[in-house]
Design goal:
The chain has 13 helices and 23 strands. The chain is an alpha+beta fold and about 450 residues long. A seven-stranded mixed beta sheet has the order 3-9-10-16-13-12-11, with helices on both faces. Strands 20-19-21-22-23 form a five-stranded mixed beta sheet, with helices on both faces. The radius of gyration is 25 Å and the shape is globular. Bound molecules: glycyl-adenosine-5'-phosphate (GAP). Glycyl-adenosine-5'-phosphate binds next to β10, β13, β16 and α9.
Length: about 450
Amino acid sequence: MTQTENKPLVSDTPLVPIEKIVSLCKRRGFVYPNSEIYGGVAGIYDFGPLGVELRNNIRRFWWWSMVQTHDNVVGIEGANITHPRVWEASGHVENFVDRLVDCKNCKQRFRIDHLPAENMEQHKCPNCGGELMAEPRVFNLLMETYLGVVEGDRMKTYLRGEACQNIYLDYDNVLKSSRMQIPFGICQIGKAFRNEVTPGNFLFRQREFEQWDLQFFVHPNEMEHWFEYWKQYRFDWYKSIINHKDRLRIRAHGTDELAHYAKQAFDVEYHTVLGWQEWEGIHWRQDWDLSRHSQFSGQDLSYTDPITKERYIPWIVETSGGVDRTFLNLLLDAYEEEPDPTGKEPRTVLHLHPWLAPVKVAVFPLQKNKEELITTAKSIHRSLQRLMVSQYDDIGNIGRRYRRQDEIGTPYCVTVDFQTLDDQTATVRERDQMTQIRIPISELPMYLLEHVAWK
Ligand code: GAP
């Protein structure tokens, strides 16, 4: 893909308000506000029992498709704290800033890069129409921390402002220890910390969040080829896990938007109630990172081609996205309130991709007071549990149990009824179409694995 895709929206399902997702996440144990009993902390969240399953599935799928299925990519897991010089070399101490203006009247604070042009020109507050301060204030987003306990000997450093820096720090070690040769990539999933001045919109802009990065090291002559390859690959990857394909696009950055390290950049964007927003950045980082770290550390990070003996600083293609933003976008994409086709009550359903759904299957006995139904259902549940996340549920009527599973996105429900006791088959009900089929109990594991395991 060489052109910016800018397709019109064709999907007719309404965009889901963030509040619906916040409420579902709290009610069903996906996400909780951090330190809630103390009043919470802006921009920081904890993940509950279902949230951690969904998050792990999202991470695992990324790792599988980026690292395990590419012979020329390996993974690392770096620390959250690094030597402070790293952040001088990376340019973050100097350049990682937000410029903000305050309204003299309502005191609200706005990021300059988020202000509509006309408000900027007229110094007019978009909230109350009052006058904005003439001079913006500059805030660095790095979170400071201190190493050591003795006052005076403590060293100021930073929690990592972008996870990818560890990849440059470990590049030479990976090269020497893994027998990789250029072109090759290093992946990592890890936390990043930013003192966002305007955190908000739930998981969209947080102060502690998780990023997934690929840094792909290439010869400068091959930069164009690999940049196009990864841009297309990442776009297709996101497309494969959403329902509303028309809400995804890729957009080129204008020169005024480029980060200090990027010579060219594209965003994979997703359309929600927040408008078109960045989901992942694809950056042409050139030789910025390895050159700067060579310069600041005094270690030569250039590469010698084993055949031609040419010596050069590798150029880098970066694909950098957010685990939390993926979590949020997937819920916004999957959430639907549907009228019940039987006319009884509407259902809330998460049309999550079965690969990513936190619970893969729920097993029910048709009735709670029939011992044989319960024993058989529990035995099926226990055998499935060895292969995938399975839940056993015998509370309330069958309709209610289906609704509970629909709301958390469980793709399959298995019901043990009286026929099961005669012929050893059970019904399998599919979440989206609500169709049911009968399957021999002995075939359930293969049938379900076939549908919920990625391939
Ligand atoms: N190494 C490049 C880099 O960090 P970025 O565009 O600042 O680039 C990459 O961040 C991704 O991290 C974004 O596309 C987004 O998905 C996620 N991200 C960035 N800031 C975030 C925040 N405050 N809260 C949640 N996710 C964030």
